[in-house]
Design brief:
homodimer, alpha+beta, 5 helices, 33% strand, globular
C-alpha cells in the first residue's frame, strides 16, 4: 500500500491544540508540555509571537487531514562567514504513532530545500544527546554532528 | 595590577571592521573571514540586517576603548515547554591576544543576566566540538552539554 502524501504547510492558530498534543506525547522531551486546557492560552500567545516574528515560521506536516508533525524555522544573520545567513530548525516533532514513515524526512527535506532556495549558508539544529535514533536520521540526511549544544536552564 | 573593566554594549556600524578582525584572526573557525576591504560591504550589509531584526542583537566587549570581543543574541519562542522563549547566543569571539582575561565570562555573564531579566526559560549555544577549552568554560558557567549540534553546509 502506498502511503498518503505528507503536506508541509505553515501552521494556523486552529492547529495549536494538535501541535501541543504532539509535544505532550513525547516521553524524552521533558519540557512539561500538556494538553490541559488551562495551558492553552499560553500556547496561543506563543503562536502569536511566532506569527508576528519576521524571521520565525511554524510549520505542520499533514497527512490525510491529520497533523502528524511540526517544526519551526528561524533565519539568522551573523557577522561570521562574511555576514552569511543560516536557517536554524527548532522543535521538530513527529506524532508518536507515525514514526518511521518518512514524515521527519519530509519535514527536514522541506527545510533544506527552502534554505537552499533562500541562499542560506547552512542549516543547523540541536538534538538531545539521548535521541540516538534522531542522530542517525540527521546524519543520513547529510548533517554533521560537528558541535556540542550547551543549554543553561533559568527556570 | 587591576585589569581595566570590560564594557558590554550594542555594536554600531563603525565597529564593523573591528568585529570582522576578531573573526578573521580565528584559526579554528574556518569560516573564511577576512579583513580584505573587498569583503567589507558584505559585512556592512549583514550588520544592517542584524540591526533591522527585532529579535537579534549584536554586541561588542570594549576595554580601554578597544574592541576585545563580540557576540550576538537571538530571542526565539517555540511551542515546546508551554510556549516559552529562549535566548540563543551566536558568534562569540574574544580577541586572540586577550584570552584568559575574563572577557568571555563578562560577555556570557551579560547574556545570562539579560535572559533572566527578560524571563527567558533558557540560554543556549553551540560550540565546535574541537573547542575543548570553550566547553570547559561553558560548563564552569553552568551550561550543560546536553545536545548535539548538527550542521549541514549548503555552500
Amino acid at each position: 500500500m502506498q502511503a498518503s502524501p505528507v503536506i508541509i504547510r505553515e501552521a494556523v492558530e486552529t492547529d495549536v491544540p494538535a501541535i501541543v498534543a504532539l509535544f505532550a506525547d513525547d516521553p524524552l522531551g521533558g519540557h512539561g508540555d500538556t494538553v490541559d486546557p488551562a495551558a492553552l492560552p499560553g500556547y496561543r500567545a506563543a503562536f502569536r509571537r511566532i506569527s508576528a516574528s519576521a524571521n520565525e515560521t511554524l510549520y505542520v506536516a499533514e497527512r490525510e487531514a491529520s497533523i502528524v508533525g511540526t517544526f519551526q524555522t528561524m533565519v539568522t544573520t551573523t557577522m561570521t562567514a562574511r555576514g552569511s545567513s543560516s536557517m536554524i530548525i527548532e522543535a521538530v516533532q513527529t506524532r508518536a504513532d507515525c514514526r518511521g514513515q518518512g514524515i521527519g524526512a519530509a519535514m527536514i527535506g522541506f527545510c533544506i530545500e527552502k534554505a537552499r532556495a533562500d541562499g542560506m549558508r547552512l542549516v543547523q539544529l540541536t538534538s538531545n544527546a539521548v535521541r540516538k535514533d534522531a542522530h542517525r536520521f540527521y546524519e543520513r540526511l547529510g548533517f554533521s554532528p560537528s558541535h556540542i549544544g550547551f543549554k543553561l536552564k533559568l527556570k
